[in-house]
């Protein structure tokens, strides 16, 4: 037999003594995996529109309502921010029509362009850390201390792509490693720096040093007095 446009022709009826013939009208079926996607800047993205359909299926791809292509497979090469938008696939034949849409977002992984730097400070003094990152969308900056939350007594300020840590009065417990984590939907990037805290000078040691200096001054005065008591006799 031969299948045509709505016709079934049987050339030899003796092929089958008892046969059941049926004609199925199959409308297009589009991919059921259409979901919002995120693609990296300068990457390649491909997506097929319909999975099956009877007879010839025509396809239209649109972006934000504007016709892009009539091919079944959508191809985006070297994606740029102009490729961001709402995409819709429509497939139709004589038996029906199906469509599906999804959103494409184009991203750039975070990069830390001003990392925090190592710091050394005496206990009780102040110090600051800063971190700056770029990316699309703008990364969220999070600080971690020794792989845990920040200790109390530290103020964090964020402004656009930059984050600051302010230590008004450093304690020994603040000594350790501080990580700046830059996060967006594309990726996470980390940079770290170390804070070293020196103890204060002991006041008692200072007093002892002063006492030693005073004793040395007294000894010097005594020696000077002894020199005054020396009498020279000349014959």
Automatic annotation (TrEMBL):
Name under which the protein is recorded: Ig-like domain-containing protein
SMART domains: IG (SM00409), IGc2 (SM00408)
Record field: compositional bias (Acidic residues): 204-235
A single Gene Ontology CC term: plasma membrane
Keywords: Disulfide bond, Immunoglobulin domain, Signal
Cross-referenced InterPro entries: Ig-like_dom (IPR007110), Ig-like_dom_sf (IPR036179), Ig-like_fold (IPR013783), Ig_I-set (IPR013098), Ig_sub (IPR003599), Ig_sub2 (IPR003598)
A GO BP entry: axon guidance
PROSITE patterns to which the protein is assigned, alphabetical: IG_LIKE (PS50835)
Taxonomy of the source species: Eukaryota, Metazoa, Cnidaria, Anthozoa, Hexacorallia
Span of the signal peptide: 1-25
A Gene Ontology molecular function term of the record: cell-cell adhesion mediator activity
Residues covered by the Ig-like domain: 28-109, 110-191
Pfam family, one: I-set
Parts of the chain that traverse the membrane: none
Keyword Signal applies: yes
Ranges for region Disordered: 201-235
